[in-house]
């Protein structure tokens, strides 16, 4: 997953509003969002290569999402699968800070990552490129392939667009999808320098990424209101960038968000 935009304890109706795109190589096999047969409480897509995931929620309100930290100079092909960090949290009963403390103790075994974990009591963030457990403050946030709220052009634009969507009393899902569909590249002078070529920096700069071999595979909306009602929507995209399937799930958490 390469961008997560979210409003946490910011909207009067919704405890959490999340809009996220997962970018991945088209050849990597994955399954769309579903309740997992081996972990029936987990709702998430699934990476079929290592059986982890990039974003998910449970019926008890445990939620987690992951992005990679882009640093090709430190990439290790023998590192542990980062997607297991998400599924590992969703399948455990550890409090979020305790889980992240355990992750911190083995952080060097993974390539760079950003991890959001939460439950109905709160939301926390950790990166193994910063090594600090952070309690996320209420507000509108953005996470891509650097640290939380790093002002890359797609994060700045995405947070502004999300704020505009949330100015209304109700939240229109179509407007959230429009944010995730933005393919406008950033000007060259605003591009970050992450160790890839200028051509790739340009290609990776939009919210929706499309290259011949790699791009946005899925988009996800997650909305949780203060009564504990959950809406989970997922769009799957073809390598051409066309939406080819949509899945929707609605359920009520066993505990209301605080």
UniProtKB/TrEMBL annotation:
<dbReference type="Pfam" id="PF05742">
    <property type="entry name" value="TANGO2"/>
</dbReference>
<dbReference type="InterPro" id="IPR008551">
    <property type="entry name" value="TANGO2"/>
</dbReference>
<protein>
    <submittedName>
        <fullName>Uncharacterized conserved protein, contains NRDE domain</fullName>
    </submittedName>
</protein>
